[in-house]
Amino acid sequence: MSEHYIPPLRRRFLEDMRIKGLQSKTDFVDCYLSEARFLVSS
Q1: pLDDT on residue 41
Q2: Relative to the CA of 25, which of 2, 9, 17, 33 has its CA 20 to 30 Å away?
Q3: CB neighbours of 17 closer than 8 A, spacing ≥ 6?
Q4: Average pLDDT in the 9-24 region?
Q5: What angle do CA 31, 39, 36 make, to 5 degrees?
Q6: Which residue from 11, 16, 38 is spatially nearest to 27, judged by alpha carbons?
Q7: Any long-range contacts for 32-41 (C-beta under 8 Å, 24+ apart)?
């Protein structure tokens, strides 16, 4: 079985999702946006 190339940014994205326990891209985006709103408001 051959290994598929995964770009570093994609690999980091998948790792972040796994660490945060997020199941979909939507969950990840919601988390990112709420964090961004918090940083802008402070």
Answers
A1: 83
A2: 2
A3: 23, 27, 28
A4: 77
A5: 35
A6: 16
A7: none
Contacts of 20 (CB under 8 A, 6+ apart): 28, 31
Structure-block tokens of residue 5: 């190339």
Return the structure tokens found at 26: 């939507």
Residue 6: C-alpha distances to residues 15, 20, 22, 38, 41 (Å): 12, 20, 19, 31, 35
Distance between CA 1 and CA 4 in Å, rounded?
9
Q: Please list, residue by residue across 3-33, b when 16 or more beta carbons sit within 10 angstroms of its beta carbon and e when fewer do.
A: eeeeeeeeeeeeeebeeeebeeeeebeeeee
Residue 22 in tokens: 């997020």
